């Protein structure tokens, strides 16, 4: 582990200790999970939103996939992480805000092709999960996909919430190389639900 990785680990761990409800793990995600979370994203297909990028592990994987840095919208609630992201990815748009507020804002850029989430959805209330998904899909194209990882045995978004929002989840894959082992899921709109319907839901 290099000096930067060691420093990132301790900063991430400090953030977890100070606010475990907003940080999804005690250590940054590994490269194997980052590749799994980003393997379906096609460079040039459109902007990519990242929720809870933290230290930027998934962000780096997106850049390695060929996604232009200026096509990234990074939404981070932790102030320490936000400053680090601004330094590491100066051409990306970095927003200091709670991801559940996304639906309250007009689009920040062209409709996104995908959203990559590092948020700890399993620790959040159903109301907050609904707000996050509604906001993300509001800013994505009709065929956009929301990618979410979990350490649990099933999709971290419960079926009743998926049904309520007209969404469907599919397993992308699992990796035993991450610590702890993790799975990645792809969440899309069901064909019969329009972006207009999601936009006008009131919670």
From TrEMBL:
GO terms for molecular function: methyltransferase activity. InterPro entries: SAM-dependent_MTases_sf (IPR029063). GO terms for biological process: methylation. Keywords: Methyltransferase, Transferase. Gene3D superfamilies: Vaccinia Virus protein VP39. This is Phospholipid N-methyltransferase. It comes from Bradyrhizobium brasilense. The lineage of its organism: Bacteria, Pseudomonadati, Pseudomonadota, Alphaproteobacteria, Hyphomicrobiales.
């Amino acid at each position: 582990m290099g000096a930067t990785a060691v420093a990132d680990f301790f900063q991430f761990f400090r953030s977890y200790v100070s606010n475990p409800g907003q940080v999804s793990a005690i250590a940054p995600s590994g490269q194997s999970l980052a590749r799994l979370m980003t393997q379906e994203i096609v460079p040039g297909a459109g902007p990519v939103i990242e929720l809870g990028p933290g230290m930027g592990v998934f962000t780096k994987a997106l850049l390695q996939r060929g996604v232009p840095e200026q096509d990234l919208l990074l939404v981070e609630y932790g102030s320490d992480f936000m400053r680090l992201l601004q330094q590491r990815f100066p051409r990306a748009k970095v927003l200091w805000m709670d991801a559940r507020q996304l639906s309250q804002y007009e689009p920040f850029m062209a409709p996104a092709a995908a959203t990559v989430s590092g948020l700890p959805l399993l620790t959040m209330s159903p109301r907050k999960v609904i707000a996050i998904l509604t906001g993300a899909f509001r800013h994505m194209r009709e065929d956009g996909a929301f990618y979410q990882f979990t350490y649990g045995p099933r999709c971290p978004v419960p079926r009743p919430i998926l049904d309520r929002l007209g969404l469907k989840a599919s397993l992308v894959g699992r990796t035993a190389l991450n610590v702890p082992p993790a799975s990645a899921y792809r969440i899309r709109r069901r064909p019969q639900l329009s972006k207009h319907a999601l936009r006008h839901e009131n919670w």
